Amino acid sequence: MKISSVTLAALLLPVVTLTAGNYGDVIEELLSDPNDAGPSLLVDGDLVVGDETAPSHSIDTVLYGGLSVIGNPTLNVVVFGEYTSEASNGMPEGDGRRLVWHTGKSAFRVGKVFDGSWDNSEIGDFSIGMGRNVKATAYNTFAVGEDARATDLRAIAIGNAAWATGDRSIALGTLAKAEGPKAFALFGSEANAPGDGQTTGYSIAMGLNSEARNSHVIALGHNNYAGGLASFAINEDTIATGSYLFASGSGTNANAYASFAIGQYNVGGFSSTSGDTAWDDADPLFEIGIGDDDQNRANALTIYKDGKAEFSGAVMMTQAQGDIDMGTYGN
């Protein structure tokens, strides 16, 4: 019997019949590993060798350098003390199928592993890993599925190849990746908040190929990209690359600082080198796109930050509205 590296209050051994001459032999056999030459249970560095004489009465106490053995000739034998196995980690190494409770780290693993992901050095304290070749390597992590990875503090990864590699990040679904601190990725998406891990994070990506690549950003839908600080890209093929942006529709680009783009295939862009992170009166504030594709972009309406507005076509009204002073002109 091997006991993993842990301090116990007592060890209850199976029922045995003790007679004069075999008491020590029985104890030694019960505490031995059949593959080792002697007992595998250590107490303060000394092997348990047993007693050569059976108890003279029903309850007896035998001391072995701090080990207390209490026995009854026909009942159970109880061993009290600190028990340490010869194994240093209490976890089987290598490939194979496992159902393991790691007592030293209060960690649980069940499933199959084939790349050393469940070796002792890869087990996080208070972690849970279930499935095929999952990794939960950091403190209080949770990984379930196939090739799921939860590798930073309190990260959660659930699904096929779902990776949660940021502090307190969550990745749910196939190929979901939450790479930054407090990032959230759902269903085949990627959320990333690069930086120092303190001033960046809190990104959300949901949907196939949607990416949230900065701090406090959201990308929702199909193939959307939110790369600017506190930006939002939603629907399909939308891009928000500057700070404090909103892009919605199909193929829309919001690039200028604090701008808003809707419709499809708007013009986008900004006029100065810092136009994506600073206010510039010449840049668009609001765009309604009516383009056909990425090579043929157009706006129905553009409102600029200086208050001017530009229409691509005629402004039509069914009847005159209000009183408009046209001024006085020559003869």
From TrEMBL:
Keywords: Signal
Domain of life: Bacteria
SUPFAM superfamilies referenced in this protein's UniProt entry, alphabetically: Adhesin YadA, collagen-binding domain
Signal peptide: 1-20
Limits of the Trimeric autotransporter adhesin YadA-like head domain: 136-161, 164-186, 202-223
Gene3D superfamilies found in the cross-reference section: Serralysin-like metalloprotease, C-terminal
Keyword Signal listed: yes
An example Gene Ontology CC term for this record: outer membrane
Protein name: Trimeric autotransporter adhesin YadA-like head domain-containing protein
